[in-house]
Design a protein that fits this description.
homodimer, alpha/beta, seven-stranded parallel sheet, 13 helices, 7 strands, globular
């Protein structure tokens, strides 16, 4: 039996093995994912993002418990920074959410940010698909950080929760504005801290200022204290309300089309680049170009055009790279 | 006279115009960059990164003043989150560093994170090259956030300063470990705050634990209060010490080779992807694939292989995408 078949039958060890193969960029993983694909699309994906120190891990832990109490199986994909010492993820699966470690309805996987060739957003999508095929009803994707990469990652989620925290300093206005677009639900965590009400008010005001089109989802700002478990039920309810909205309004169709297109184009982009590397591996093109750049006798733009022409022949329709 | 020629002659308006064209992904910008390329490679590039709220902007402002007082011309490329309202950068060139606004030796440019096709790291490199050709001695690149994208951006810098701040919460250990590799100089800013000594000590300990190869640079941890200007001279001196090390040790050669290779491959990757989009624009491939994914009758991995085969013909050496 292939790994994919075992995953579809609910084999957790096969799922872990396949995720490792994805992480390691093994060619066999692609063959397994092809087989897995028809069995995906059932899970509801929730993205959790926000600046460091906002308490996202604790919140994810509480959300997991909340969905479990509703009888849902929960997968968690946590994007961890890579350790420079071990090459692996720092926080690790083990020290995360110990209380769920004996629960077969919870599957937790840390993804290191060591940057697979395809980028983190593609491997996150692929790992999420494995959890989906394994039968997880809910897949929570938790990112660390607030960069462009994180935005790309949470775009794959049906519902994105942006977690803020009171008093993060000067950059906060800028961050808030930058992430207003991607949030379906906003959470001010550590709500017992000074400034929680102010942060909540500011976020609400900024959201009201948006010129959202008629009939679009109206994001709320909720307060939580994840450490004490307070506000979690309200957050779960709001996530489910957003899910209901997606389906009732038909917004889901557009969302899925865009997500599928992005996924396909990501895979295509990787494939092209791998082919280019293999194409150049046959001669000393890369070395010559890099040396020429060093002496400024070759510019990288013209060099790329030459390689494109060589690779694509008449098929190269665009001269400008 | 082309824009590139005007830039090389020190024409600031031409530089601003070319940067706008780069931002807008205009094909003409590539032609200008080709001309500009031989005139680049003179500027010393400093990357400033760290979590939100660390006071990076203020620190950049102070560093600018410090290098100006040494008679150096300073360019600043600030990566700003994109406003969902205007589509442009939020902080903007104008409200940044007002005190340098009448100084012709300072050129400040905000880059929005709205994600050009080529990604932020490529447009940052291109904009930095314009500043370089314009005659800036120092180019400071400031990122917002601590994601993978930010790491890629600061890889283009000769010297990377990682700015930390006391008491950022639970995630801090993870972040610190994740960025240890990329920092040449570490700064604990807002050093008047509680916990500054502890953060400094922890960072120092973690750096000492690294198994750095013999003869490699030994990063220091400095304390600053950017708001008051304290510790800035020491920071400038440390940056210059790192520059001296790069050249004296010969490490610079390897650094430049790797940077040039990354730049070339970034451009090639973009060019390939643009060609793929143009290739598919001729028929309904993309629509068919996305629809097939929706009904799970087509998987994106196989679909990408078909497009690759069509585009590359016999030249496709790798089946796995």
């Amino acid at each position: 039996m292939t790994l994919a078949e075992q995953v579809v039958q609910g084999n957790i060890r096969a799922a872990a093995r396949l995720m490792r193969d994805i992480d390691d960029n093994r060619p066999s993983a692609v063959q397994e994912l092809k087989q897995l694909y028809p069995h995906t699309g059932q899970a509801y994906i929730i993205g959790i993002t926000g600046p460091p120190g906002a308490g996202k891990s604790t919140l994810v832990d509480q959300l997991t418990a909340s969905f479990r109490s509703r009888g849902q199986k929960v997968g968690v994909v946590a994007i961890d920074p890579t350790s420079p010492f071990t090459g692996g993820a720092i926080l690790g699966d083990r020290i995360r959410m110990n209380r769920h470690s004996c629960d077969e309805g919870v599957f937790i996987r840390s993804l290191a940010t060591r940057g697979a060739l395809g980028g983190l957003s593609r491997s996150t999508t692929d790992v999420g698909m494995v959890m989906d095929a394994l039968g997880m009803d809910i897949v929570i994707i938790e990112t660390v950080g607030v960069g462009q990469d994180e935005v790309d990652i949470v775009k794959a989620a049906h519902t994105t929760c942006v977690v803020m925290v009171p008093g993060l300093g000067d950059d906060i206005q800028a961050i808030k504005a930058g992430i207003l677009e991607i949030g379906d639900v906003f959470v001010v965590n550590k709500a017992d801290r000074d400034g929680a009400d102010r942060t909540t008010r500011e976020l609400t005001t900024m959201l009201e200022m948006r010129n959202a089109p008629e009939g679009s989802w109206n994001p709320q700002v909720l307060k939580t204290e994840a450490q004490r478990g307070s506000g979690i039920e309200e957050l779960t309810a709001e996530i489910l309300a957003h899910r209901d909205f997606l389906f009732a309004s038909g917004t889901i169709d557009n969302f899925l089309r865009e997500r599928n297109q992005r996924h396909f184009l990501d895979i295509l982009r990787d494939g092209l680049f791998r082919n280019a590397l293999a194409f150049m591996a046959g001669d000393d093109t890369l070395t010559r170009v890099v040396e020429g750049m060093g002496s400024r006798s070759i510019d990288p733009y013209s060099a790329a055009e030459v390689v494109l022409q060589d690779m694509l022949g008449n098929r190269a329709r665009l001269a400008d790279s």
